[in-house]
Design goal:
By secondary structure, the chain is of the alpha+beta class. The protein has three domains: 79 residues, no CATH class; 72 residues, no CATH class; 208 residues, Ribonuclease H-like superfamily/Ribonuclease H (Nucleotidyltransferase, domain 5), CATH 3.30.420. It is built from 14 helices and 13 strands.
Length: 484
Amino acid sequence: MPNLLQIIVYLVQKIKWQNELIQKLSEYITWLEDESDRPTKGTDMTKLDFNKLLIDEPPIVEEVERLDFKQLLTEAAQNGKPIEKVRRRRSSTSIDASIRCAKCNAPHDYLYKNNGDNGQYKCKICSTLFHKKNRYSKDIVLKCRHCEKTIYKIKSRKDFDIYKCQNDNCPYYQYHLEQLTPKQRTHFENHPEAFKLRYLYRAFHLNLDELKAYGQIDAPVDLARIHASPRLLGEILTYHVNYGLPASKTAALLYDIHGVRITGQTVLNYTAAVGAQLYEFTQHYPYELSSDFCGDETYIRVNGKWQYICYFFDATKKIILSQRLSAKRDTALAIQAIHDVLDHFKATGVPEDLNLIVDGNPIYKLAQHFLAQHDFSFDITQVIGLTNEDEVSKEYRPLKQIIERLNRTYKGHYRGSHGFKSQNGARAHIACFTACFNFLRPHQSLEGEVPVKIPYMHETCETMPDKWIFLLNLGHQLLHNQVA
């Protein structure tokens, strides 16, 4: 009996020691990864009950009529009713010479102060009332499409300006006001800013052509002139990309097993050159796609700072459709990533029922707003929170979980490097991972098959290094055809 008690005490002490060791190892891994300052997801979208983003209906655009005061003066004189300059009393205050009519450009000599010193003026020539910040200072006027009243800019954001209809009798406003429950009505009376009941329009100042441009990945070496044989290059890519080994370990493995001495920097140079050759290939390959698309962003270290990858993914075919990297997790990144998806439908046209599954980050809805203004129509379904508290979450959460698994898969390949020294190196590694994921990596959910079968590759290439070289040759042909 005493021996049994001693054994139990010993085991308890052993378990405590193991727990302490696990805790210390966990803290050490956290320190190595340096993720104590990792980005957060930002605003908890589950708490924004009254701030759901809806697609903006385009406003009515009205061109502002412009007149020429000289022509008006000439016409008045020809009709026998010449217009004289304003005769001011000595007691009246003068009008600054810099102020001109906002509609006909008449000088200050033809202007009245219509409301004293409160800033409103009236033109004697065209009878226009205006203010220094009058609508006539613009070429167009935006009007609510529901009540045709002028909408005014109320906020300026980094990527867009927000215009609001402030007409209390607007049918749009009155309709949404009537839809409030008694509980919401009480909350609205105390916190009207928490609701979006009025007609809103977001005028973006982003350029789609500029956003589409991503730039070429710089290749530090010419693959046609490297000292390594095609077989060796394929082995480097297999170890470094397929198995996620850091460049230094890849170099060490090549020496220990194959007796080939290269440096870790050489591995990185070759990877960058391969990424430059395969990026366009992966983005423009004619994939056969399903209708299940999901997207999400994750973060990596680039030059000591966090940057963001926005992946969009065919969840059924297991094909990565977008692989954008950006220093900021903003609307521009979401627009770029979604447009990459839409670009895969260039030949057939965007399906009418295209639906993209994302999380609650508002950048995706804003991207939908922006692209809708450029005649791209698609739906965005946001899976919000971590639990299935609504029918949308129950139906679409599996797709959201699939894209999160993709993020974890990439992070597993990236983690050993502890980050990249440059954005170019990061983009090259992402491009190589995408090529491997789409064309070379078997998937259990596809019964051990690769997502995209390239004709003749799997019949003629027995080993993974040979498949890499086959893929590189196809990428080279695509680049050659584009240059030609």
